[in-house]
């Protein structure tokens, strides 16, 4: 009897422990399936998860979740040149969805968000070093609290 | 008491005193006045009437200097007519034998329990119910008198009529009265009225605002702020871009001539849309027209746009033209390449200043026609501020800018810097429409139907803007807040941005008339 349980203990000891933190690609695959708020929570779990969550492909997946057809490679290069999908999500897409929660998220809305993102990029280029405390932002209309009549 | 009174904001109630002094009603209050919201004891009627007459005399003689005094102090709730008139008179130093005990003796109003909490020497009293829009530290107050808004508009129009009939002394008196009324009117109406009053005053005293008086970098800040904080410029840019995109779907090269480059905020979005075009982006050439004072700025702007184009992978070329007047432009300045490029001409709020010189608009449109564009996009204010009669222009402008200022009101009590700057931006237009004349008057807005006639006689046919433009504009306006006040309206193929059903901006697209295209 004792021998059997010893074997069992040995067998248990031999099985390697699995930690998700050792497998970043698996973690990325899991995070890609989350929705916006959950993803933001996940990014706050620990430093490692925060770093992994900066992987732009996760945010790309989030931006295009309900949109078809899928984006082309040229879109990816444009968006990453303008600052990446994560910034696109936080600056443009999330405020739009927050302002219009019933909005059907289609390619048109995505295009519109991209245009806003591009204007924002250009404005930062144009204004350059700003001496005041609040540089002008073309996206401020998305952030201002709105009177819902 | 029975004399006919000149119109002042309070005195209309006074004539009702005749024959109405019946002693009934609660607490001896006059019933008729109570219906209007004024609480006056029947026994005090004669006294109140007398005070009001004195007040009227003082105000009409003294209105210039007393303005400041009235603005700096806090007054009783005007429902208590007696106390209010008394405090006004004592502020204006009319009542030399002021009896300090009377201030605290007055009957407190039920819904305002702070009325009597002052000491004799300190007349700064906070008005609870009336002051909820002002911070508690502020010693200014708003003397809210019923129907001031209507009276304000009446005074403004009366003043404009006086100016129209060259009755400058009457106009002078009226404009001062408008100033007082405007200062006490809260909200958009007060601000608009203040700008119109200033413009009328400039017209009366013949101080013509020079359009070059403003610092160009401040001008730029105002424009960027106006772009950022309200949807008008965004609507203009996005709608024009959509029309351009639809016209260049199969082109290998696009050349855009922008008649008013400003900060180039329209072009990043177009370049991004071109970059993502299925089949790859066309080459994009931009020729921007700017003012002479801004040569270096235009150069910088070209660099920044080139940087953006490089980042998103669009082949880009930029050239800048500076000119004092758009009508000085000649077709060969643009170096068009008709074999390889589709030409687009874009004008956002740039056509109406050209109307200040006779014959210029025809020359400009002839130049535009001569370069043979595939599409011309025009966005202009939807208003007729270019009529021959001053009074008509004034009334139109009052209606138009009241709507505009109303749309800027976001319900936030302390105005943000952005809103103030937007108001300054619009205020300068008001000054120009009302006070300037001749070549200086550049804000010569015309309605879409007027522009349609001009474009038609210059040899252009209209292009329908399509449902994509409509949907995009609707999305933009839905995101812009304003509590659903913004609307897109379709008008015979053109789009209009309206605030509370009043159209404010009109966007249209044009192509060369059929026989000219060959």
Percent helix of chain A: 55-70%
CA(first)-CA(last) distance of chain A: 77 Å
Structural class based on helices, strands and sheet pairing of chain B = alpha/beta
Radius of gyration of chain B from CA coordinates = 29 Å
Strand content of chain A: under 5%
Show unreliable segments of chain A. Answer: none
Work out the helicity level of chain B. 40-55%
The number of helical segments of chain B is: 17
**Strand fraction of chain B:** 5-15%
Q: Which structural class do you get from the secondary structure elements of chain A? A: mainly alpha
Total count of strands of chain B: 9
Q: Treating each run of at least 4 consecutive H or I residues as one helix, how many helices of chain A?
A: 9
**Helices and strands of chain A, in N-to-C order?**
HHHHHHHHH
Query: What characterizes the major β-sheet of chain B?
Result: 9 strands, mixed
The interface involving the most residues is between: A-B, 39 and 48 residues
Which regions of chain B contain 5 or more consecutive residues with pLDDT less than 50? 1-26, 64-69, 94-146
Oligomer: heterodimer
Please tell me the overall pLDDT of chain B: 79
Broad shape of chain A: globular
The major β-sheet of chain A equals: none
Keywords (chain B): Developmental protein, Gibberellin signaling pathway, Nucleus, Repressor, Transcription, Transcription regulation, Ubl conjugation
InterPro entries (chain B): DELLA_N_sf (IPR038088), TF_DELLA_N (IPR021914), TF_GRAS (IPR005202)
Organism (chain B): Arabidopsis arenosa
Function (chain B): Transcriptional regulator that acts as a repressor of the gibberellin (GA) signaling pathway. Probably acts by participating in large multiprotein complexes that repress transcription of GA-inducible genes.
């Amino acid at each position: 009897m004792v021998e059997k349980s010893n074997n069992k203990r040995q067998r248990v000891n031999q099985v390697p422990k699995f930690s998700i933190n050792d497998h970043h690609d698996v973690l990325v695959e899991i995070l890609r399936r989350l929705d916006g708020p959950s993803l933001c929570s996940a990014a706050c779990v620990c430093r490692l998860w925060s770093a992994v969550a900066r992987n732009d492909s996760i945010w790309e997946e989030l931006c295009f979740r309900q949109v078809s057809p899928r984006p082309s490679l040229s879109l990816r290069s444009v968006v990453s040149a303008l600052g990446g999908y994560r910034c696109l999500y936080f600056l443009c897409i999330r405020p739009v969805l927050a302002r219009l929660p019933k909005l059907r998220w289609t390619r048109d809305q995505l295009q519109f968000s991209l245009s806003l993102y591009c204007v924002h990029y250009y404005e930062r280029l144009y204004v350059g070093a700003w001496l005041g405390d609040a540089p002008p932002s073309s996206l401020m209309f998305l952030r201002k609290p709105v009177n819902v009549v | 008491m029975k004399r006919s009174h000149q119109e002042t904001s309070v005195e209309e109630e006074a004539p009702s005193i005749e024959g109405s002094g019946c002693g009934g009603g609660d607490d001896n209050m006059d019933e008729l006045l109570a219906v209007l919201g004024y609480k006056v004891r029947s026994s005090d009627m004669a006294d109140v009437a007398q005070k009001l007459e004195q007040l009227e005399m003082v105000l009409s003689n003294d209105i210039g200097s007393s303005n400041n005094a009235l603005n700096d102090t806090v007054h009783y709730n005007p429902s208590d007519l007696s106390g209010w008139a008394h405090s006004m008179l004592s502020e204006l130093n009319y009542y030399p034998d002021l009896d300090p005990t009377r201030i605290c003796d007055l009957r407190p109003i039920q819904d305002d329990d702070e009325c009597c909490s002052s000491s004799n020497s300190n007349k700064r009293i906070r008005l609870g119910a009336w002051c909820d829009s002002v911070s508690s530290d502020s010693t200014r107050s708003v003397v809210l008198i019923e129907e001031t808004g209507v009276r304000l508009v009446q005074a403004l129009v009366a003043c404009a009529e006086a100016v129209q009939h060259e009755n400058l002394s009457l106009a002078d008196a009226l404009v001062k009265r408008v100033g007082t009324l405007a200062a006490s009117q809260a909200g958009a109406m007060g601000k608009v009225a203040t700008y119109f009053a200033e413009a009328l005053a400039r017209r009366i005293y013949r101080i013509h605002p020079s359009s070059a008086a403003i610092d160009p970098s401040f001008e730029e800040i105002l424009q960027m702020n106006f772009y950022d904080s309200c949807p008008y410029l965004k609507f203009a840019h996005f709608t024009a871009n959509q029309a351009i995109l639809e016209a260049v779907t199969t082109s290998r090269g696009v050349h855009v001539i922008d008649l008013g480059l400003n900060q180039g905020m329209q072009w990043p979005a177009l370049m991004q849309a071109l970059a993502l075009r299925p089949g790859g982006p066309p080459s994009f050439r931009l020729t921007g027209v700017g003012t002479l004072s801004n040569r270096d700025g235009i150069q910088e702007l070209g660099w920044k746009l080139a940087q953006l184009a490089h980042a998103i992978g669009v082949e880009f070329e930029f050239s800048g033209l500076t000119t004092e007047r758009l009508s000085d432009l000649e077709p060969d300045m643009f170096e068009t390449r008709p074999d390889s490029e589709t030409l687009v001409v874009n004008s956002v709020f740039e056509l109406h200043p050209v109307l200040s010189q006779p014959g210029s608009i025809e020359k400009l449109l002839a130049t535009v026609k001569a370069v043979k564009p595939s599409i011309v996009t025009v966005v202009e204010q939807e208003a007729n501020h270019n009529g021959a009669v001053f009074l008509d222009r004034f009334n139109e402008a009052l209606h138009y800018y009241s709507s505009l200022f109303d749309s800027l009101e976001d319900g936030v009590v302390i105005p943000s810097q952005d809103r103030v700057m937007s108001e300054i931006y619009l205020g300068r237009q008001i000054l120009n429409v009302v006070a300037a004349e001749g070549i200086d008057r550049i804000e010569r807005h015309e309605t879409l139907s007027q522009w349609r006639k001009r474009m038609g006689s210059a040899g252009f046919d209209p292009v329908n803007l399509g449902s994509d433009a409509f949907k995009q504009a609707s999305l933009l306006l839905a995101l812009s807040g304003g509590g659903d006040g913004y609307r897109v309206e379709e008008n015979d193929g053109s789009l209009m941005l309206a605030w509370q059903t009043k159209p404010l901006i009109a966007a249209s697209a044009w192509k060369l008339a059929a026989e000219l295209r060959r």
